[in-house]
Design brief:
The protein is an alpha+beta fold. It has a single domain, classed as L-amino peptidase D-ALA esterase/amidase (4-Layer Sandwich). The protein contains seven helices and 15 strands. Strands 3, 4, 9, 10, 11, 12 and 13 form a seven-stranded mixed beta sheet that branches. A four-stranded mixed beta sheet has the order 1-2-5-6, covered by helices on one side. The protein has a two-stranded antiparallel ribbon with strand order 7-8. Strand 9 and strand 10 form a beta hairpin. Helix 2 packs across helix 3 and helix 5 packs across helix 6. The longest helix is centred in the C-terminal third of the chain and has 24 residues. The N terminus is likely disordered.
């Protein structure tokens, strides 16, 4: 197994002077701007040439999101799942819907590797809490997936338990690698190379001072329909919109430190779909478009062993001073904007990948995109990287 990483000379959306929305981003412009959240990734990349089912070539991986540094089984975070289009094979949905909590790390991977990744999450939970299933309840792993079979030997299920545990062990705060990495290694979006993308937005101090971060696994969209900040980039690059059916899926994960319970988080999750729509998706028949949202706020966590029959909670007021919904509306805006930018970052950062049978997904051509955005007056000079690099 060898790791294949993105070329870090490819820009993110802010690097070219493009500002999505109106809210500011956090210091890393990533889901890890939400305090306590960490991301770990392992990429599996080996073999070239014709597909040998079960052997290779492998272009796949796993991406893991850790909501906090403690024991998630004992100190559960509130969560909610929303499904815009259900053409997917996620694991763990039912219990999140019923109980409104997460009790393992969140893992993203290739469709046919979901079972193996879930098994690894169970192993990790048992290792950290040995009484699971004996004197304590069983555990509910959460795994989201997209189909990377165009580039990857998907039947090979090339991820091992060690790969997943290594991703958990490597999880860190700070910048998050994007594009063709981890679960995003073999993914495609709008006919280009897709993959992992992330972004964040900050709520004004006057409205709570919270953070919302998004991380997406982008593997969706029809060629010719890509929209970048309102500009029909896909159609302009390809002269005419493609008639090809939208295929693939996207998993969107939202994190926030706002003290929101699962009902409120479901409302937040639904707004991610608006960010998805802004990039040109129509949620095609064969597309699985799902969102998981969670809160890291300690005031809304759900301990396994509560000290009494009630729990004190402090939650976001949906009708604040004077009946204002300004704080909730700001959180909704943050979800929309961070999701939209995270999808675009996945495209901007991803490099060209050649996979099984020579199948190729070209990287989004940055220079023509920048020229189009300049033509439409979308770019600002402040904070902009020189592009293309001299």
């Amino acid at each position: 197994m060898t790791a294949q990483h993105d070329d870090n000379t490819r820009p993110r959306v802010p690097d070219i002077g493009l500002g999505i929305g109106t809210l500011p981003s956090g210091p890393f412009d990533a889901i890890t701007d939400v305090a306590g959240v960490r991301v770990g990734q392992v990429t599996v990349w080996h073999g070239d040439g014709p597909l040998q089912p079960g052997v290779g070539p492998a272009r796949t991986g796993v991406t893991v999101i850790m909501p906090h540094d403690g024991n998630l089984f004992l100190d559960r975070v509130p969560a909610a799942y929303d499904q815009f289009n259900g053409f997917g094979k996620c694991i763990g949905i039912e219990q999140v819907d019923e109980l409104g909590v997460l009790e393992t790390p969140i893992a993203l991977t290739s469709t046919l590797s979901v079972g193996r990744v879930a098994d690894a999450l169970i192993s990790h939970a048992i290792a950290t809490t040995p009484q699971i299933g004996i004197t304590m309840s069983s555990v509910n792993p959460f795994v989201g997936e997209c189909n990377d079979g165009f580039l990857n030997d998907i039947q090979g299920r090339h991820l091992s338990e060690a790969d997943v545990l290594n991703a958990i062990e490597a999880a860190s705060a700070g910048p998050v690698e994007e594009g063709a990495v981890g679960a995003g290694t073999g993914m495609s979006a709008f006919g280009f190379k897709g993959g992992i993308g992330t972004a964040s937005r900050l709520i004004p101090e006057s409205l709570g001072g919270w953070t919302v971060g998004a991380l997406v696994l982008a593997n969706f969209g029809s060629p010719g329909t890509l929209i970048v900040d309102g500009v029909p980039v896909g159609r302009l690059l390809q002269d005419a919109a493609s008639a090809e059916t939208e295929r693939g899926s996207i998993v969107m994960v939202l994190a926030t430190d706002a003290p929101m319970i699962d009902r409120q988080l479901r409302r937040l999750a639904r707004r991610a779909i608006l960010g998805l729509a802004r990039t040109g998706s129509l949620g095609g028949h064969g597309s699985g478009d799902v969102v998981l949202a969670f809160s890291t706020a300690e005031s809304v966590r759900r301990p396994y062993d509560a000290p009494g029959w009630t729990l004190p909670m402090e939650i976001v007021a949906e009708d604040g001073p004077g009946g204002s919904s300004a704080a909730v509306d700001a959180l909704f805006r943050a979800a929309v904007e961070s999701t939209e930018e995270a999808i675009l970052n996945a495209l901007f950062r991803a490099t060209t990948v050649v996979g099984r049978d020579g199948n190729t997904r070209e990287a989004l051509p940055i220079e023509p995109v920048v020229s189009l955005l300049e033509r439409y007056g979308k770019l600002q000079l402040t904070g902009r990287r020189e592009w293309p690099p001299s």
